[in-house]
Amino acid sequence: MTLDHAGIFGKITGVSLFVKVMGIALLLIALFGMGTIIETRTLMRDSVKKETDEKGRLLAKYIESSIIDRLITGDLVGVSGSLKEVAEIYPDVAYIFILSPQKRVLVNTLGFALSQDLIGANAADEGGSLAEELLETEEAIINDIAVPLMGGRLGTLRIGISQGHVEHVVNTMTVRLLLSVLLVGLIGAGTSYLLAFILIRPIADLMKGVARVETGDLTIRVRPWFDDEIGRLTAAFNNMAGGLGREKIFRTELVRKLLTSQEEERQRISRELHDQTSQSLTSLKIGLKVLEAQVLPREALPKLEEFRALLNRSLDEIHRLAVELRPPALGDLGLPSIVEELGADFEKVFGLEVKCSIERYFRENRLKPEAEIGLYRIIQEAFSNIEKHAGAGVVLVSFRKTAGEIVISVKDNGRGFDPGLASLKTGRKPLGLFGMKERAEILGGKFNMSSKPGQGTEITVSLPENI
User: Does the global pTM surpass 0.70?
Assistant: First the structure.
């Protein structure tokens, strides 16, 4: 199969099931209608032609019996009158003439001299029996009948019966049959459309339901149309979607509790670092200060200064960890301000340029506490991924509001990656991205990540406005 043929075959097989069913039905109706017309036309032509030929033979016998006496007595005028009467009565008779045994025209109804081609086109059988020959003329096909008069001793009677009547009858009947076939075809097409609709509509609804499930909507239920195989399949789909929905609710609630417990644990550790560990180190720092005031050997002073510097660094690190675990100002200043501080710290530590674009709406309106901490963790994880993997120079954090939604995105100009290949290499979904997606869905929002090699990475979280 060539590429062109493959492409054509693909387009044909790729059309919808409704088009396929209707196409097959209409094709069968068309083939049946054409076959019926052709077969009926052939049968009618044979039947009418047979009837016409039989009428011609009977007419020839009648003419022979009516003119034989006049021909014997040489009354050619009477013979001519009889032949003209017959030609006038039967419009299918194209001509009648009588040939002498010497092939000379004795009587002719055409009113003009006959050609030698017509005279020699047919001849009675030598045994004295009737002979027939089909002649093609410009007007129509002629069935030429040659009747030997008294065994040919008085000559030959030639009658030409036009087949135009046959064609007229066949064509008239064909038109009527074609109209009937078209009417039946329209009825068949309407019936096919109804049957296709009955068959395809439930499948189309089921496909829409599958598409909704693919987007994560497990509340969708498809109404069964009939209690047949498709109806039972629809019921099974509804049960499956319901089961998945219940599992998703259970899993979401479990993850929500885990995250809540995790935040509580973070807060406890942050408080312990601030209240206990930090205070203990501060006490050590004071002790070193007191010790410094005592009389010490000169060589101990550098070591004492080294311990003080180590304590200061430890206090700073503990303070930074406590802030990362639970930003104390999040409840007071709000998410945008804390993100700006996080970006400033990120700039100092890693030397990246962090830009924050925050619309006025977020300065004047606060989100719910669980939404703020969830979004903060997502942004925090995004910063961590940028530091570990992106190799970026600029990071843009954007807070914007659209119709009915708030959208927060973190975009970098790093090396980027192919998300599909990343999953294939590790054999599993990256936990950082999975965690961000889980947090966004728990908040009732949507998470999206787009990245291409050499074009950086952008994560976007969309939440309902009333969150």
Answer: no
